[in-house]
Design goal:
75% of the residues lie in helices and 0% in strands. It has 187 residues and is an all-alpha fold. The mean pLDDT is 86.
């Protein structure tokens, strides 16, 4: 019985990833989850109490995998500047990944305060990855610099997700340039 519940929960999470990837948070509804998994809508409520709970679980499952990929890219880089570049590039590379949709969905307004706090803490772990590299580069406030750097990444993510006029590669290069050289063209 436990194995069956685990499989059903995994199927619901996979369906949620697909719905988020295809239509954003608006597409993530319990009727849609039920339809995708072949469960009765009332059965979906046995696994999750709300859409926010689904998103929270997706983040709990997917964020560590996503963060590990960023961490691995940084570990493979030699030197603080290259680590910063890997941090930015890997996050922007992951934008198209279905797991990323769940992480992006954390901004959905229906999340309760507890869910938002758990997700903020996980995001803080991602920011913590880059603090040492920024300190090595001479930043006197490396934690602040990391948060600002993540702001550039987040803006680039939004731009890519909106289907901006620029190609994702152009957005990525602009974000990397902004992070590494600031606003001075060719600086």
């Amino acid at each position: 019985m436990a194995e069956h519940r685990s499989m059903q929960r995994a199927a619901l999470l996979d369906a949620a990833r697909s719905l988020l990837s295809e239509g954003g948070t608006e597409a993530l509804t319990f009727p849609a989850l039920a339809e995708r998994t072949g469960l009765a809508r009332s059965s979906v409520y046995e696994y999750f109490r709300s859409r926010a709970a689904v998103v929270e679980e997706l983040c709990a499952v997917d964020f560590p995998v996503w963060a590990a990929e960023v961490e691995a890219a940084m570990a493979a880089a030699d030197g603080a500047g290259v680590k910063v570049e890997a941090y930015v590039r890997k996050q922007l590379e992951l934008v198209g990944d279905r797991r990323h949709r769940a992480v992006v969905a954390i901004s959905a307004s229906e999340l309760d305060a507890g869910a938002r706090e758990k997700i903020r803490a996980a995001h803080g772990g991602l920011i913590a990855m880059i603090v040492e590299a920024l300190a090595t580069l001479g930043h006197t406030e490396p934690r602040l610099a990391a948060m600002l750097l993540q702001g550039v990444v987040d803006a680039a993510v939004r731009r890519i997700e909106l289907g901006a006029a620029e190609e994702p590669d152009v957005i990525t290069e602009a974000a990397v340039g902004m992070v590494l050289r600031g606003v001075v063209a060719g600086g």
